[in-house]
Batch of 3 targets.
Target 1
Amino acid sequence: MVEQPRRVVITGLGVTSPFGVGPAALADGLSAGRSGFAALDGRLGNVPPGWGAQLDLPRKRFKEFFDTRVLRLSTMTRQTQLGCIAAGDLLQSLDMVPDGSKHPDKGAFLGSFIVPPDFAKQVRAIRILSHRPEGEDAGFVLDDARLAETMKFASAFDFLRALPNMPSSHLSIQTGYQGPACTYLGSDASGLQAVGMAIQTIRRGQATAMIAGAAFSPFQEVHLAWQGQRGLWSSADLPAEERVRPYSVRPGNLPGEGGAVFYLEDRDVAEARGATILAEVTGYGQRMLTPSEDEQADVRAEALRAALPGGTPDWVAPSALGRPDMDRLDAQAHAQAFGAGFAAVAVTPNIGFAGPATGPLQLAAALLSARGDATPVRGLDVDVDPASAALGDALGRQGAVGAGATAVASCFSVDGVHAAVGVRVEG
Amino acid sequence: MTASSSERVPVVVTGLGMVTAAGEGTETAWSVLRDGHSALGPLSLFDPAPYGLSIAGEALSIAREDGVDRALQLLDMAADEVLTAAGWGDDERGGDTGVVLGTCQGAIEGAGGIHRRYAKRPVPAGDADDRRAFAEYRPGFGTTRLAERIGAEGPLSTVGMVCVSSSVALMHAVDLVRCGEARRVLAGGFEAFTQFVLTGFHCIGALADEELRPFDQDRTGTVLGEGAVLMTLEREDDARARGATILARVLGAGVAADAFHMTAPDPKGGGLERAIRQALGEAGLGPADVDYISAHGTGTVFNDGMESKAFARIFSELAEDGRMPPVTGVKSVFGHTLGAAGALDAAMAILAMRHEVFTPTVAHETPIEGLEDWDFNPDGVKAAKGVDVVLSTNSAFGGNNSALLLQRVSS
């Protein structure tokens, strides 16, 4: 007899965004149409685009969630901090603040990106002590001759905190989750991939609950430079709050930081403990993009359909990258998969593009919208790109809310991965 | 971490490809291990003086190609071999084929350059070389590059779990095939030897003074290596239908976290024990069914200590009866290859089963106190008729543990 896969539900949501900690802060910010952007200070201000959406991290709240005798925030990179605080807020909302007990049936999957700000911080001690100025305002160069002397000042934490597995490892250490823990690397889609893999893990009976999602901060010179070379940043001579308009005739995006994590549970386990079920997962789709230009929209559409088999969502939360070529493919894929009539929500006009965390933040926004907890007011106040109309016209539209409403969030990456997660709201 | 036995599709390994400190190719690596030699040698890629070290597991034989990251070159070479060995061609392209790779730092070689250039002011405008370096610096770049090369359009992911990266990648690959999300997956891991990682390990104090001595009472640390190790995994019925050579069957897998601390493993090896028991449970086997253990064996005080404690609890009854399966480690031959380590350990275990031998634990002299009765096989390769099931284990900083159970398949 073949066992049926377990049904997976979402029973909790944790968010860190430039609007603050918690899903309510994100919902309020989106509903009010607020902008999280500000001019970047210091060295970052000299790197295009010069603007971004940052969070004033409430470090003291970390103590509310976790035992700082085990690990302090200073042992984490900023993206790990953002993820742990989101997870802590999530667990606090579920009355599950870690108490030192261990949970071999629970795990943690997070999406990540190896580059920023880890690399610079990782070698901070060496960087500071081993570099010599290379002329006024010319920055610094690594002085290999001083390496031996200065390495003694670097601590184990300088290296360990930036290892790629640390976002999920920290989470498992802080929560006592001893089941599967994994950090998925890649780029923009790895956050939704982590959610998708966690869904699969519960479906197969390998865990009863998983915390999954991603957190990310792009505010490091090299990463901003890379994304700039990717053609992602807006150079428009406009106020920051008007710069990001995906699917419109106004190209470009701005960097943002934050994270979203979901408490995913085996439905039977959630019901047995009397949990409030926010939504049931309808599906997860992931496709590798074919090199064939003609088929790219088809492949994306396949991933979208797998997230909501046989259905048309009330809400979609697409990549909203703001790069016209990508936006057009995204719109074409959504039209192919779902036709028209859905409402779309995008966080990037408000809080920018947060790399692998964008997908989970979009899923959070879609879930909040479909539940009626958020009413995103931001439609396009500029002309829609006719080739992206399927999504451009849907921004600002209102979809069905409440029990039975469906949403599909998706993200594609330059790695060629397109990932999509679908949910159906419960009462 | 796979599906329940009632719904399990048999998954087999049909090809191996690798480049290691021993050189290019599986046969090269195997012959060095079989003969009990070490491929470790003088550190030559940069000045070792600041580290007080002299040896590393550099893949010195690779022919450098200008403009291509060292890690990607290793990956390309392993791919050349595994695709030929498995006989994958046009029939194995498309949406049924996935790629899952593990790595710690990915294609990081060019990253040092861009970090130095982009630390300057004003920020450079960037040129074609910068754009290439940025593109390669994405940790998933190697996975995408490999997928494009073989025309794989199915599931694709990159696992960043440091020393368990490639063993977890193999497990994901098995899951994808068992659950029907792919019919076949190219999986494994890759890692280049870099000053960046060496500096980190030096800061941790995890590097050996002289030799890497797995499970030795006088072990002082590990030696870093580099390499790429790939396997083709596919449904057994597919493999048999196309007449492929089946190297091994994957019986079970387990992954578990210590949830202990970022700098040290659970000293009791609790996470590793759970991972092994999960793998045994999934395979429907008991400890007595394990003929041979291919251990992580980094040569560090913490890892080998906790690993042996986990083994001691699981195999306690067998040990009391003098039937403890032999425990061997290969890192004293190839160095610790981080993102490639899990796949390398598993690959060597597969070859040992096929050649019906126990491989030696090179440089092991004195067992950890209390383990004097265990067989670490320090004296050279030994014949081992009837070795059917091998357990391959790995553990990582942050407390991640994995266990794979592999079975010999008679031709």
Target 2
Amino acid sequence: MGTVVHILSWICLTGGACFVLVGAIGVLRLPDFYTRLHAVSVSDTMGAGLVLAGLMLQGGLSMVTVKLVLIFYFMIFTGPTATHALAEAALQAKLKPVVDDREP
Amino acid sequence: MEEHLINNVLLGLLMMTGFAIVRMKSLLAVTMLTSIYSLLSASLFVVLDAVDVALTEAAIGAGISTILLLATVARTTDEEKAPRHKPLLPLFVVVATGAALIYGTLDMPNYGDPMAPIHLHVAPTYLHVTPEEIGVPNVVTSVLASFRGYDTLGEVTVIFTAGAGVLALLGYRTRRRNSQDPEIRKMVVLRVITKLFFPLILLFALYVQFHGDYGPGGGFQAGVIFATGFILYALAYGLGNVQRIIPYRTLRIMMVAGVLIYIGVGIESMLLGGKFLEYRILADDPVTGQHLGIMLIELGVGITVAAVILIIYYGFVSRRH
């Protein structure tokens, strides 16, 4: 039992780290503000969420897990809101997205 | 081993952020980088097991000061002015100071050395005496509020003086009730989420305030988090609406009241026949007295810190462009 939970938690932690890494690569490689924002939101939601899930499995049924659930609740609300607010602000500042207008 | 690795990675990132701050010309980007710098230092404090300091650094360094700097940049310019003088003299001063500091570290004891003077002076007494005489699980709180009550009173007075100084320099102008950017009015998601989280942030501030005896936290951190809640509300709904909740006049009274509560606890213990800030005299049982005294002075600290930060924020934002 203990080993299975341990392995599961490490799968979650590694998966979360991978999503954060993908988000970071995206910020560096993608061409304009909106697509970069899209990359950041991946590490905000899936990355942080999976890392928190992994930590919850490590914590077991304890006060630590309750606090982690609260942090998770906080993250799933604030992350997308921040992304949305940034995109909205960029749109209102008339920042044009880079569009591929070549013929398909 | 892992701890050394984490420490070195964090210190390396700190150094890179420092260089980036020096190289950048856009003050907006520099503001965000200073926020990252604070967050990295907060992580470093967590690795060093200084959780109370980390909480303060994250709340003040990465939170409040970023907002205040952004408010300043928004009201002035975000372009760094080119210096008129040659950079040789500042470079020399920085290199000389840095060399002196590094020379100073050569005499310091090794990191984590149990025989270092700092671990042999008063720290053992604090650790030994806290469980019996004060009964507070978080030794940081007992040192800050009880053993070093005078120092903390000094710190609160410094914060109060800073607030009074900003008040004298910036002044304050009343704004109309709905003076708010029309763009933000359109951001429905932001406004709804702010309304949802505003009470939760205040609740968390109260938790940090009154749970400081048991876990990391206390008046300084709680005051900052409290002020952050109101600043978030002001960002989404405009300064005018926040002033309906906490008017400027109330803040000025709160700023003074916090310091007065602190001094009042000290005078009360003198009136009861003890020394200044001798809490154990406050109740029949010395441990209960310590609890009461710590709770009251932390409350005073929290009130003053929250009021000063909000006063500074009001002062910055109420100014015209």
Target 3
Amino acid sequence: MKTRLVPAWASDRILAAIYSVDSSSLMDWQARHFPVDIFVGLADRMDDLVRSARLVAPAMVREELDKVGTAGLKRWTDQHADIFVPVSRTA
Amino acid sequence: MSTSPSIPVNPDVLRWAREESGYPTERVAVRLNVNEERVRAWEKGERQPTERQLEELAKFLRRPLGIFFLSQPPRLAPLGAEYRRLPGVTPGRESPELRIALRQMLTRRETALGLMEELGEKVEPFSLRAHLRESAAEVAARLRLAMGVDVATQLAWPNEWRAWAAWRSAAESLGLFVFLFPSVALDEVRGLAILRDPFPVVAINSKEMPEARAFTLFHELVHVLLAAGNEELPAIREQRPARAWDAVERFAESVASYVLIPEQALREALGSGVVARSWNLPEVRSLARRFRVTPLAMATRLRESGHMTWTKYSAWRHRWDEFVATLRPRRGGFATPVEKAVNRAGRPFATLILEALAANRITSVDAARFLNLKFEHFEKLGDRLREDALGAGLGE
């Protein structure tokens, strides 16, 4: 018998959720715990979130990642520049 | 011209942030590419900066953007309450570069103490003391004993870089931080001490050449010891007249020179022909190289112990200054990002950050920010620190 991990009402909310992430989330994902060349499925799911405009981050996150991040993460942020929004829009 | 929207901020906070960083309105105007009148209008509340301008201002003043949204300026202790009295520096009138450096080092120390507590490390009070009534040789001998550096080890160091690294490590073992600070003119400050307990800070201007760094390190360390012995106060409270303060400075210099060149070791190096020496430049340079100190420090030391008369010292000093004036400006060597980070913050701090990261007490972004090092270099940083620890364990 197939069991649901989350109830239907919660599932709908999750599908509608927009994730606003900070620098650490992106760093821990790519540079520390789940490198994109190994955890390919996770990277695809993140790309899905970006495509459906459900992943955003303040523009300053991009600047911070440029300063402290890895070359791979810099490439990823360059390819997904649309997720970064000015502080005034996030406020 | 910026088209981003204006942001309502408290003008008092804007003025505080600028003044606290030591910048006049003119410097802010130039950096933000606006008229100086515009900056003044922001600080009077007559106009508001745009979001872009506020972000640029935060970067320029090295403050988090959020600080501009405080309802009133924060109350911070003046920087002059933190560092020792410095020749030529008036508390509250430090250069912006020095103020930034001080703030960064104070934050680094606070970060370290917080992490040490979180990681369950025991933090002991700083226990070494010095008193002006003691002889310089006595204080120096106590310091060398505490650091565990014998003369044979010192004379075996192959170059000035190894000597500096070893002295730094020995000083750090006493329970203090040794930091390097960049971007401050040597004319303003060569070194400074932050008189806190536990873990006081001794800081060296990174422009200082390696053989001079050790002298500055011990000079500053003596000020820490004197403060611990209630012999001196932080800059803002130190009220001695100039002449009395000069005596304190001379004591610190003298102890530093005795630490680097103990009397017995100097006598042995000189052998029996002390009086016959002419003390020309090559002779003093050769002797200085042996101890990995600057020729000037060696000449001062020879004078202190009476091996060189004041007359000979003055003549030597004159010739030395003339010689130095003919030298080309020294070019900085190449350092990798990891080396720069470790040089700046020191091995104990870098190690602590890696431990805190491994224990999930800080994020990777925190770690990179604390060390001012991109996260992609952290693997090399770990390798470097392990190699250093292994080298120290093998007695290198």
